[in-house]
Amino acid sequence: MPDEPATLAEGRYRGVLLDMDGTLIDSNEAHVKAWVEALLEAGYEVEEKRIWPFVGMGGDNLLPAAMGIQKESAEGSRISERRGEIFKARYLPDLRPFPGVRPLLERMRQAGLRLVVASSSPADELETLLALTGVEDLVDGTTSADEAGRSKPDPDVVRAALEKIGLPESAVVMLGDTPYDVQAAAKAGVGVIALRCGGFPDKDLEGALAVYDGPADLLDRFAESPLGLG
Fold it and tell me: Could you tell me the pTM of the whole model?
């Protein structure tokens, strides 16, 4: 747990909720491949393009949206569990953060912002993902799928992160990369700064306060971003 920020926040916000996959770490493609492989093992031959539009959802929302399978069903539970095994064994060890992630979070801390991770990933995956980004010492806490009811685009994860960060909705902004981050945050009364590095075009990120190429781009334009403006 990092020390309290030494300065008051520069802009209107006092805290940032951080999505992990596709925002801080380059993992969206790996998630797609893991789903495709798990579905193939279950007898469903699907192309990656069928899964990509739903990246950013947890399995409870992705499986029904992409395949018409309820995660709570016996089949859905098996597929979801196998996806996790495949992801952790074949893809997770090789994932890397996007350029500029640590400097961006350091800049946020210097600006007096509290930081809490708000992810739809299971807690065990999130712990490893956070370690791979190398920013554990900069965040004030994490919220995973294990601490919320429904995954994004439902607002449960965002609301759980708001409780953890201990700030009102008007004082918090979320950093995300998918339309489901935008939708979940909006339902919780939180604005979103969106990043293109997760693979979604600007039209899918409609409703975000601002859109940047990735963490490094946001860092370069920090002073003029919603985080730096008063």
Answer: 0.92
Distances in Å between the Cα of 179 and the Cα atoms of 3, 85, 89, 144 are 32, 26, 28, 18
Q: For 163-215, write each residue's pLDDT tens digit.
A: 999 999 999 999 999 999 999 999 999 999 999 999 999 999 999 999 999 99
161 Cβ neighbours under 8 A, 6+ residues apart: 17, 116, 117, 118, 141, 143
Considering the domain 28-94, what is its CATH architecture? Orthogonal Bundle (1.10)
Sign of CA dihedral 130, 124, 59, 35: positive
Give the angle subtended at the CA of 80 by the CAs of 76 and 82, to the nearest 5°: 120
**CATH H superfamily, domain 15-26+96-224:** HAD superfamily/HAD-like (3.40.50.1000)
